[in-house]
Every structure is written in C-alpha cells, then in structure tokens.
From TrEMBL:
Residues 113-345 form the Rhamnogalacturonase A/B/Epimerase-like pectate lyase domain. SMART domains: PbH1. InterPro entries: PbH1 (IPR006626), Pectin_lyas_fold (IPR012334), Pectin_lyase_fold/virulence (IPR011050), RHGA/B-epi-like_pectate_lyase (IPR024535). GO terms for molecular function: lyase activity. Keywords: Lyase. The keyword Cell membrane does not apply. The keyword Lyase applies. Signal peptide: none annotated. This is Pectate lyase. It holds the Pfam family Pect-lyase_RHGA_epim.
Amino acid sequence: MLGKLHDPRKNAVLLAEITGRHLDIGKALKETEQLFQGCLTKNAVPVPTATKKLPVPFSQKFGEVVFRPLSKPAVITEPTKVHADTEGNIYPDWLGRLKQEYNQLQGNITKEVNVADFGAVGDGKTDCTAAFKKAIGSGKVKVIVPEGVFITRGIHLPSWTWLAGAGKGATTIKLHNNADKGARLLTNAHHWRGNHHIMVEGFSLDWNVERLGSEPKTSTWGNHSSCLTYANVTYGWVKDIETINPGLHGVDISSTLYNYAGDGRRAVGGSKFIWVDNVTGFGFGDDGITTHHSDYILISNCHMYDPSGRAHRKGFSNSNGFEIDDGSRNVVLVNNSSARCFGGIEIKAHQNSSAASNVQIIGHISVNDNRSYNFRHIGHHKSEDSESKTAFNIMATNLVSVGPVFSDLYKDSKPRCLVISGYKNVVLNHLTFIGEPGYNYHGGPVAAIQYQARKVVLNNISFKNFSTAGSGIKVFGGKNRADSVEIRNVTASDSEDSSFELITLGPGLQDVKLEKVKRKREPVLPKE
C-alpha cells in the first residue's frame, strides 16, 4: 500500500522486487543518454498549425505585463549529467559542488544551541515562536529541537542556519491554532534578498489544517500555505522530514514569486542547488514536493501519498506526489515513490509560464495514482494553440506504475500509467506497467502520446494485467497529433480472451517506428 510506514530509503530494493530484475543502473543510464542524444539530432515532423489561432484572453495579457519586470528570458541549458557509482548510488554532476558548500556551512556554524534553553516547551500547547526566533538569531547557528510537539506561528531561517530535530515523529513543529491560512510553517527569512546555506533535518512539520475546520479551500496564493518553502535559496538541504496536511505543498522549492510573464520567461529569484532527501508527506492540499523557476534540484528517496486535494475545487484536484512545475530546470529525481495521488510525477507548466525542462527521473514507484507519469504544457496542446517554446528534454530510467485507478481527486480523469503531451525530446527507458487484476479500464490506453508531442522514444516497456484496457500505447493522430515517435522492445502479458492491443496509431501520423513488439497470452482461468 505504501502508506505511512513505508521507508522510501528502501525504494531501490523494492523496484528490483517489483520488476523482477536487478538493473545495472549505470549501464541503463548510459543507454538512456545515448537514446537522448539521438533525439537531439533527429529532425521532427513539424507540428501542424491551424489557420486561425485562439485569441489570448485579456486577463492573460494583463498578467504577462504585470509579471514581466520580475522575469527574465527562459533559456534551455545543457541537461545535467547523471552518474552511478560502483555501489549503485546515483548523483548529478553538480552534487560535488553542493558537498563543498555543505563543508562551508559546517565551518560557518559558530555555536550550537537548544531551543528549550530559550523557553521552548514541547507540550503541544505553548507558543514557542519567540523562543525559536531568539535561538536562531541572525544565523551561523545550529539549533537543536528536542523531542516533543512545538507550537509556532511560523519560523524564518536566515543564511548559515541549521535546524535539527530528534527525528520524524519524535520532534514535531506545528502551526498555532490562530495562524493565518497563508502561513508558511518553515521558510527562509528573506524571499526578496535571498538566503543561502540552510539545512533542516529530523522532524515532522504539521501545518495543522484542522484549525480551518470545514473550510473548503485550504490555501491562499503563490507559495504560501505550505509546510516548508525555500524561496530564493542557494545551497539548501532538506533531510529526514515529514510534512503533515499542508494547505498547499509539503515542500516548495521556489522563486520569490511564481511568475506568469508568458512562455519564454522565467521568474527572477529562483532557488538553486537544493537537495531534498528522505522526505515523506501526506494530506497535502496541492502537491507533496514541488519546484518552481528553480535550478539544480535533487529529490531522492522521498515518499508522497494520500493528498487531501483541498487547495482545489472538489473533484478537480491536480494534487501530485511530485510536481516539477513552471520554469524549473535541471531537476533530478532518484528512487522516489508516490501513492494514491492524482499524478505520481507531473512535469508541466501553466499556459502563461515556461515549461519545466531538463528533468531526469531515475527510479520511481507509483501505486494507485490516477496518472502515474504526466508530462504536459497546458495551453500548448491544440492545433489552434501556440507551440510551446520551452517544453523540452525529459529523460527517465526504471519507472514502475502499479494499478493506476480512477480517483475522487479528479473525478473525470481516466487512469493512465503515462501521458506525454506537448513535450519534445522525451526518452523513457525500462518501464514496468502493472494493472489491477480485474479492474475495468473501460478500453482506454495505458500510455498516451498525444497533443503535439515530438521526438519521443520509449524503450523496454512491459505491460501486465490490463485485459480491460484498449491498448498498451496509443499514439494519437488528428489535427493536434503527436509524431516522430519510436517504440522499441515492448512485451505484454494478458489473458487469451483479452482484446488488448499492444500499440494503436491514430490517423495522419507520418513518423512512427516500431521495433520488437511481442505479447504473451495466458490461459483464461475457469470460473468457480
């Protein structure tokens, strides 16, 4: 079930158990990289364009003018190189730089204090806001938070600060009953000026959503209403943290403000060089872990599950375990897991912002998410829409989807293991898709490549238990068709009476290559 007791540090082992193979991850990463380089040199079939474009709403035009002074041009940089050592540990090439800065953090800590010595009481009743403020001071300090439940109206961390608890569940920092709906439980001190060298580890963060009662919407705006927000932080660490029932996000690695200056623009004041490791979370109103307009982010060994979706209108909740959102670049996700979310991992952007680019996923387990892996640039899908300027470059290796299902979070969304829309240069290698036995998938596809996606390569894909689905992979045709797609090394196991087709192709496709596609028929079990 991958619930509260799941330890995401065991995800690498669990991946091998589910897939039944002990993947040589170093070799697999090189294979993915080679396929990606082939993508870059390929000439794609042009995206069809309509004779008449949809008019841009006045509200969007006005918003782009307002946000433009707080933005800069979006540039697609070189993708981060990812490596695997002899023990199978996976790391981006910039991690060495972050380790050097970690040594700088340790060297600049001049004292270690205990927040209890400043009047904090972990009784779950006493307001400890002033005690945390005194203990933290102006930084260059490691603040120890002992076992207990510490009530606060919000904690602000200056540069050169290390906040350390006694472990998830042992130490809990909780929002005061009278805290504003927009309160951030833990954040850096200066969103506009920026901060650097901040480390938090070893506690639970309880946003205390119960204080809002039955209020339907649990968040306010922007990067408010979250358990932990790093906004305009350079060199940051988030380790061994649990996030509980945030109004919006569990962890938000963000710019000072979200920016909607249009596709081709990114926010100023983004965060960079951040490592989020062994973070778990549930009950989030929107996303468990999210990034916006930030660069060089590593998210590893994390687990997000069972969102509330209450930041959205009921039944229309785009609540994802992991969301790499507007303007994010060079984000690497390693051996994470998600359960019962709308999306397990969503890589995306809003219509009036730049798409996330240069994103790499190495190892992920999705259990009963409605859409396990969902890649899209909203508002750049139809033939009447403008073509995305920034939706480029996704690589993934060793992804697992177990039992995608319908969800009350987004009641009309059909379950999918994979959806690719509008992105170019997408290479996915070693995919294991396992359906719920006997579940009714209503003839839909398990994986969909659609809405002007181009230069997509799927390699080494296996399907099992999707007898009621219509197809394994569907490449959609029509006016806003996908094209320039390569699908290789596909296997499926289903029952003899199944109408399941491995691959279906829509009308008008010009460049789709299929190689080594096979299926295994299993006998139908006799009914009792």
